[in-house]
Amino acid sequence: MDEHSRTHSRWPLLLLGLLLVAAGLALAIGGGKLLSVGGSAYYLITGIGVIASGVLLAMRRGAALWLYALILFATLVWALWEVGLDWWQLVPRVAILCLIGIILLLPWWRKPLHSRGGSLALVGSIVAAILVAIASQLSDPGRTEGTISNASEEANAVNPAQVAGDDWPAYGGTNAGTHYSSLEQITPDNIGELEEVWRIQTGDVAGPSAPSEITNQNTPLKVNDSLYICTSHSRAMALSPETGETLWEFDPEVSTLGAEDFSLWAHMTCRGLAYYDAANYSAAPDANGSADNSAPTDTAASNNDAPNSDTALSFDIFDNSDIFSLDLSFLSLLFSVEDESDTQPMLSETDVMCPRRLYLPTADARLIALNADTGERCANFGDNGEVDLTNNIGDFDPGGYYSTSPATVTENLVILGGHVTDNSSTDEPSGVIRAFDVHTGELVWNWDSGNPDDTEPLADGETYTRNSPNVWAPISVDEELGMVYLPMGNATPDQYGADRTENDETYSAGLVALNLEDGQVEWVYQFVHHDLWDMDTPAQPVLIDLATDEGTQPAVIQPTKQGSLYVLNRETGEPIVPIEEIPAPQGAVEGDWTAETQPRSALNLLPPPLTERDMWGASPFDQMMCRIQFNSLRYEGQYTPPSLEGSIVYPGNVGVMNWGGVAVDPERQALFTGAKYLAFVSTLIPREEVEEGQGSASEQGLQPNAGAPYAVELGPLLSVLGLPCQAPSWGDVAGIDLQSAEVVWKHRNGTTRDSMPFDLPIGLNVGVPALGGPLTTAGGVSFLSGTLDQYLRGYDITTGEEVYKARLPAGGQATPMTYTGEDGRQYVVVTAGGHGTFGTKMGDYVIGYALPE
Description:
Blueprint: H1 3-36, H2 42-58, H3 63-83, H4 87-104, H5 107-110, H6 116-136, E1 180-181, E2 195-201, E3 221-223, E4 226-230, E5 236-239, E6 246-250, E7 274-277, E8 314-316, E9 325-327, H7 332-335, E10 337-339, E11 342-343, H8 349-353, E12 356-361, E13 366-371, E14 386-388, E15 401-402, E16 408-409, E17 413-416, E18 419-420, E19 433-437, E20 443-447, E21 476-478, E22 483-487, H9 502-507, E23 510-515, E24 521-526, E25 542-548, E26 551-559, E27 565-569, E28 579-583, E29 597-601, H10 620-632, E30 647-649, E31 663-665, E32 670-676, E33 680-686, E34 701-703, E35 710-716, E36 731-737, E37 742-748, E38 775-777, E39 781-784, E40 791-796, E41 802-807, E42 817-820, E43 826-832, E44 845-850
Parallel strand pairs: 1-38
Antiparallel strand pairs: 2-44, 3-4, 4-5, 5-6, 7-12, 8-9, 10-11, 12-13, 13-14, 15-18, 16-17, 17-19, 19-20, 21-22, 22-23, 23-24, 25-26, 26-27, 28-29, 30-33, 31-32, 32-36, 33-35, 34-35, 36-37, 38-39, 39-40, 40-41, 42-43, 43-44
Helix pairs in contact: 1-2, 1-10, 2-3, 3-4, 3-6, 4-6
């Protein structure tokens, strides 16, 4: 070989050698830092080895191949020792080293080294790595497999109050919040034929003045011949259930409450409307859980002069025209009587004017009653159809108080709580729960956790207790028992609790049952003692009659952020599934304290505690940085107190379960839900280090906590590449047998599609977080749409198998619902509008699916 050829062959070796030296230096320096904070010595040792390999390679020594083969094989052994055959855990440990090994075997680098033995050794290490990779594909350590029975032989007849039928008249299907429908047209066998049949855009899109957490989380209602939705800016719309055609629209023209725009508001969302029909309280539900809304039961047969209870009395003003029509079916209530001694309730004057009504909570803190047939205001409700929810609330920043969740409606009351801005100050609005007369809007009772015994309405000029714990999730009601179930939040700030009152400590982060008639407390059960982690109760309580060894019990199931599913007797508040008080980490910041124990349900989706081995990345480099970060933060398991150095909160603030809650099949006695696994970091900052007015408009970043001795910095535990520092799965779906209180199946859910910097039509099944609620049906299919990738998915409830997937045009961070159309088809409808802080694509879509005609 001439001098030119030798020089030419030297350059590839020199360049790759220098790259290995640089990579080795990064690993060695980072590895030294990791070792200094108590972490693994692997990165330091490997870094030194890679440096030596690079030097030998640049010197054209065959020993470079031998040494690199040893590094790769030792890494493989170490990786298996740390994480076993977990594919996603093996990738950052082995993949890049294996790729470099393959490059070293290419002729440009291998031949000049003249080391057949070194080449064979490296081939052996690479083959071993490939075999391990193949073996890791055969199992998933986080997967649980099993089968839920198709029906419970021990369960009693399903309570109609817990089941939606042809209609979907409430946010959770019914006031029991089960998210369950008795419809069974769509099954695991035919769901593959499910197709999009209509799509509309509301026109309510996020503009430049929108807050960072503008979201489209609406769950539509369907009653009779209308589908009802609300949008981010509190507009209400009625659609045709079969076509999506707009029937009417109402815009409340939401005020900025004196602010320049909405950009500094913490939230801008409307999760749903509430529906009321006076006829429902004189008509018995049928087997499907639907009521005959046209007349009371058992009246027409005994009164031949009364209008037919199954016939709507209507007059077309123009013959054969759809221009104008009056539906007067409600008049049957005025004329129908069974006999002289047994008269049915007559409609009130307000019901005659507005027999079917919707209740719309607005982002500027109003509650508006609308005629469900026309979209006009129900003028006799409150002041021209609206109630001012700022009454007796006191001062608050624009957007700092309103109801993001729908009201809950009973025979006589419309009940709702409200969102209160987290971690802004220690002087925020009350978390009062108010019950208004469903007809007139007059305040009937109020329950303020800061003044829990006095439920009489306040006089003008009085103010509810400032900063008392609130209820921002939907409320459930058992009208037969006469009880209201409140999923309680916390007094703000979330991460510092030294100044909380005795009532704050009693009612925060738990479930409170009130008497429906007067709002008095029946019982309370707390899920987190002295909560310092933002583990407020986030979801609607689910009411179900549960078959147990002691017989059928009236149960309430409460999903929580911390991962426990608490199952209580809804009449007494006593646990049905055992709850254990477990020791909790101690050592709060000066002035604060921590509870010695915390409750944990035997039924839970709680992940194992994090360890350094759980830290993850796309490469050894960002994984190493995550390991340094993990060891530099305070972490002693769940409920590690917030600290000045920063504490890991796991499960994080977004929770294992959040506002989407769970779906419960009362016939199968089965529960379906999504679970999120994301760690957060909570760092307290002394007040003197925070400039006045400094802080974030969202629930991440710097939270000012004005009035408290500490502000707090909040955010997910992320790598330098913006990926979660903990290994996947970050999101699962799970099926639970409620009679045995066991997780029967659980697996990863969702892909990396839509989370990458470039759009590819495929995604890797890592399991991604989902924000949104589930739906389950008697047909054996459950639905979920809230994942980071834009899909509506269907699952076989018995096994968890994914049996359907439809691409959405935007993020589906909402809860699907289902109903029967006038054409006899079962429809599934979902909102696809995105979520500002979740980072999904924004939109304004509502989409309907059905089987082919």
